[in-house]
Design a protein that fits this description.
By secondary structure, the chain is α/β, with parallel strands linked by helices. The chain is 35% helix and 16% strand. The chain is built from seven helices and seven strands, in the order αααββββαβααβαβ. The strands form two sheets. The chain has a five-stranded mixed β-sheet with strand order 4-3-2-5-6. Strand 3 and strand 4 form a beta hairpin. Helix 4 packs across helix 5 (181-188) and helix 4 (141-165) packs across helix 6. The protein starts with 29 loop residues before the first helix and ends in a 5-residue tail after the last strand.
């Protein structure tokens, strides 16, 4: 893209950056913007660290403005600083699934929809991740977190089935880490569901999988929640701290 001489960046998106559509801003090259975002989408297959940023930028491909182009170029600056970074799949690791789920309640500034983020790891290495805006407006942080939990459970169930087909069946319940106490209480206590009727079928889907022994919801401190990087833009220290927990390796880093 002609940006070989750009200044490298340590993280892909400015902390607390809230992009939104506006008719009052300067227009940009729509074709170039779409080409850039399309290419970045391919990278998210092996680069979870840019998933949230690319997901956010995809929402403005119809009428991008200059601030959206600046955000795309910021991602390119980050990629320049980490050309050898990727997922390390350890050969001797135990094939055990772990899941992390999180949500940013009302994070979208113009729709107030929350963002679901999850990371699923096998043997300490990430194999499935997602960052997506929820389709409805959550009335509470507990509801937003619980919807994120339901989406994570669906992915975990599919992965457990797939691993069984591949001869690596999961004998124990898959640990699912969540930092919201209310969402954990709803998942573990069916009596509490009457207060959450508006969450529809999710109220029954998650506890059913917990009772079957497939999922084990577990409390985790917010500062240890690696799925946090899939729900909001983070600062340098927080971003690098979570990235170090994801099983990433940099081929260009000094040994």
């Amino acid at each position: 893209m002609g940006m070989q001489g750009c200044r490298p960046s340590k993280f892909p998106m400015e902390q607390n950056c809230k992009l939104q559509a506006s008719d009052d801003e300067q227009d940009t090259d729509v074709t170039r913007y779409r080409r850039l975002v399309g290419r970045l989408l391919y990278l998210t297959v092996t680069r979870p660290d840019i998933t949230y940023a690319v997901n956010t930028l995809c929402q403005f491909v119809t009428t991008p403005k200059q601030r959206h182009m600046d955000a795309v170029e910021r991602v390119l600056c980050y990629l320049k600083s980490t050309p050898g970074q990727g997922i390390l799949l350890k050969s001797g690791a135990e094939l055990r699934l772990e899941a992390y789920c999180d949500a940013d309640w009302g994070g979208c500034p113009f729709t107030r929809r929350s963002c679901t983020g999850y990371m699923i790891m096998l043997g300490g290495s990430p194999i499935s991740w997602r960052s997506k805006r929820q389709i409805v407006v959550a009335k509470s942080s507990a509801e937003a977190e619980y919807r994120a939990m339901a989406a994570t459970v669906s992915e975990v169930i599919w992965l457990r089935w797939l691993l069984t087909e591949l001869g690596a069946s999961q004998q124990e319940a898959t640990t699912m880490f969540c930092d919201n106490q209310a969402a954990l209480h709803i998942a573990m206590n069916p009596v509490f569901h009457e207060r959450m009727k508006h969450v529809e079928m999710d109220c029954y889907f998650v506890p059913e999988r917990v009772q079957s022994g497939e999922i084990m919801p577990t409390k985790i401190w917010t500062k240890e929640q690696v799925a946090d990087m899939f729900t909001k833009p983070l600062g340098k220290d927080r971003f690098e701290s979570l990235l170090s927990k994801l099983g990433f390796a940099n081929l260009h880093a000094p040994t």
